[in-house]
């Protein structure tokens, strides 16, 4: 510490110099104070920002810690597909079946192409001649074999010459079905489309298959040309199916991803009864549904709770109970013991009633519906303490009017399993082939899938349905035509 000078010893000039020095010192300290105050304000602001960031991080940390305690999403408690579910290894000793079936044998073919009746000539016991003894059938069996597969190649030569009357050249008219153009007939084209679409066989493998199995040399370009040439007939068949679908009053829908070129598209399915239509579109929004429906609106719609599929029915919408049962299972796995277990049991009971509807009278069905509604009201009065339980209860409270629509109309299914089953081959095709390189290929696949799935529902074989379509014939329901 510096001692102050003795002012009595200073003259007037010394005092003036001291005052000036003190003023300079004061100005220097004032400037340093202003800098420190600015630094202090900046540090306080930084501290406040760090405190706010710390609060956010603490909240995120708490949320992540809460998620660590949540169960994983699995096929049995969410919409996760079965292919993504973990399957544990089974033990060496499997649990025996509770009700093993009695077993079966192959039945004899109803229409054998050839019969071989063999009569015994000698007795296998005493070697006596029994050729003159009357004999009956004691053992009948089939031997099934494939004949040699050889392509039928018809060489067509159109003859011609010069007309002696008008002296002009003439040429014979090609026979029906043997016109010039593609060398491949409709059966071969149908077989190629069948293998490509129904079994997801790549073009490279198709070339080898045709060569090795059929003895037909064909290039990948020729296979692509076959598919391209069939666009018009399959689009026409798909339009017929769409018109038949719109003749009904109920519609179910679902969607799955697809890959077209280097972009993600979506494959949609719209169906009910024996009619089913597929649409591959670059969009997943309501635009797809609007373009497909046009001015048509069904009375009832069946789907999951995806927003793009809602708001199209004129009367009511049935939510898929299978999805909600899985959602309830997730809430149960998360720890909810108040609401979700009882709600899951309620939906399972409702699905069981739906399976017995053909044998129930209308009055019994109405009684069951009233009981389901009353039980649901009682469940919604429960206030679960678990977060997942509260969240799930709020969802059910908002959509409760769409849970038991199927109890009022026997034609409405309680689940959207029909849509998921119809669209499953599209998922398999996507995983095996990685989908499509061109947009026209995606559109053609949708039209062919519409044909094949509709044919399946009408008890028509896949190859037969493709052949009918190539001949520009409709798919008649064989179950209703006798």
What does this structure look like?
- The structure is a single chain.
- The chain has 482 residues and is of the alpha/beta class.
- The protein has 13 helices and 7 strands.
- The protein has helices at 12-68, 186-198, 203-214, 220-229, 231-246, 286-293, 321-334, 340-355, 362-380, 387-399, 417-433, 439-457, 462-470; strands at residues 160-162, 169-171, 250-260, 263-272, 275-281, 300-303, 316-319.
- It has a 5-stranded mixed beta sheet. A two-stranded antiparallel sheet has the order 1-2.
- The longest helix has 57 residues, at 12-68.
- It is elongated and about 165 Å long.
- The termini are far apart.
- The mean pLDDT is 90.
Sequence of secondary-structure elements: HEEHHHHEEEHEEHHHHHHH
What's the total helix number?
13
Strand content: 5-15%
How is the biggest beta sheet arranged?
A: 5 strands, mixed
What Rg is obtained from the alpha carbons, in whole angstroms? Answer: 39 Å
Uncertain runs are: none
* Number of DSSP E strands: 7
Q: How does the helix and strand content classify structurally?
A: alpha/beta
């Amino acid at each position: 510490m510096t001692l102050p000078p003795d002012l009595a010893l200073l003259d007037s000039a010394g005092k003036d110099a001291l005052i000036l020095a003190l003023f300079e010192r004061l100005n220097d300290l004032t400037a340093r104070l202003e800098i420190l105050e600015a630094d202090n304000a900046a540090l306080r602001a930084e501290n406040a920002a760090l405190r706010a960031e710390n609060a956010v991080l603490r909240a995120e940390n708490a949320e992540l810690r809460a998620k660590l305690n949540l169960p994983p999403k699995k096929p049995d408690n969410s919409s996760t597909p079965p292919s993504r579910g973990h399957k544990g290894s089974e033990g060496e000793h499997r649990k025996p079946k509770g009700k093993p079936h009695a077993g079966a044998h192959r039945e004899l073919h109803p229409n054998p192409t050839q019969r071989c009746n063999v009569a015994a000539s000698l007795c296998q016991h005493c070697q006596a001649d029994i050729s003159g003894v009357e004999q009956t059938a004691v053992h009948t069996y089939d031997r099934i074999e494939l004949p040699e597969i050889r392509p039928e190649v018809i060489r067509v030569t159109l003859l011609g010459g010069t007309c002696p009357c008008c002296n002009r050249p003439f040429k014979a008219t090609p026979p029906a079905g043997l016109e010039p153009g593609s060398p491949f007939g409709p059966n071969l084209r149908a077989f190629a489309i069948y293998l490509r679409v129904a079994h997801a066989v790549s073009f490279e493998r198709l070339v080898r298959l045709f060569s090795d199995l059929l003895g037909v040399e064909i290039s990948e370009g020729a296979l692509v040309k076959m598919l391209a040439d069939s666009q018009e007939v399959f689009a026409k068949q798909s339009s017929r199916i769409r018109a038949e679908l719109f003749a009904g009053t109920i519609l179910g829908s679902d969607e799955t991803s697809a890959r077209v070129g280097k972009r993600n598209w979506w494959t949609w399915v719209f169906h009910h009864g024996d009619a089913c239509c597929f649409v591959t579109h670059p969009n997943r929004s309501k635009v797809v549904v609007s373009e497909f429906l046009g001015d048509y609106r069904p009375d009832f719609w069946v789907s999951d709770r995806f927003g793009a599929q809602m708001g199209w029915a004129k009367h009511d919408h049935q939510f898929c109970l299978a999805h909600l049962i899985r959602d309830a299972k997730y809430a149960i796995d998360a720890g909810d013991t108040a609401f979700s277990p009882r709600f899951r049991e309620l939906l399972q009971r409702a699905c069981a009633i739906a399976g017995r509807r053909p044998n129930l009278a209308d009055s019994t069905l109405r009684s069951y519906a009233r009981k389901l509604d009353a039980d649901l009201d009682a469940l919604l009065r429960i206030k679960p303490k678990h977060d997942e339980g509260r969240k799930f209860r709020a969802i059910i409270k908002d959509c409760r009017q769409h849970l038991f629509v199927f109890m009022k109309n026997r034609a409405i299914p309680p689940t959207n399993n029909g849509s998921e089953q119809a669209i499953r081959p599209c998922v398999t095709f996507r995983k095996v082939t990685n989908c499509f390189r061109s947009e026209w290929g995606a559109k053609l696949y949708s039209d062919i899938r519409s044909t094949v799935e509709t044919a399946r529902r009408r008890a028509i074989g896949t190859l037969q349905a493709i052949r009918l379509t190539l001949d520009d014939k409709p798919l008649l329901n064989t179950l209703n035509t006798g």
